[in-house]
Task: structure prediction
Amino acid sequence: MSVADLPEVPDGLAWPIVLGIDPGTRIVGYGAVVHHEQGPRLLAAGVLRAGTSKDVPTRLGVLRRDIDLLLARLKPRVVVVEHAFTAANMQSALRVGEGRGVALSCAAVRGAEVVQYQASQAKKSLVGDGGASKARVARMVATELGMDEVPRPLDATDALALALTYVHRSKFAGRHA
Result:
């Protein structure tokens, strides 16, 4: 499903929407949950694909357009973006950082609260182990959201894990977004 096919969330929804973003410059995972008092509810999950044959500025432009549309349709109050990490491959870390910058700026311009978590923080929040495998995190995401199957691809599950981490932490902090 493309972003343009997502249903538009009506204004004034009683329960806040939390959108997680797993950044990149070729593929960006997204996962949105409704922060309901009876537990989080899946709203949307998927990936944005900027392609591999385009140059980096063009891919970033495609991602900006798609993230802006995603934000306009889902109207999240909170956007959680995976925090930068240190990678063995400096070029890869640089590309992820560029994708993060696009996601962060789109969310800030939209007026959403912007939160950043390390992948290890999300893993620890969901499964109690900051070094857990993507597959293990994906299974826990599916369980927590009452899904029979693990969402695919794992970029979307990673994004949902970020959103769920915000929900968990806000409960423990005694606040509802």
About this structure: The chain has a mean pLDDT of 89.
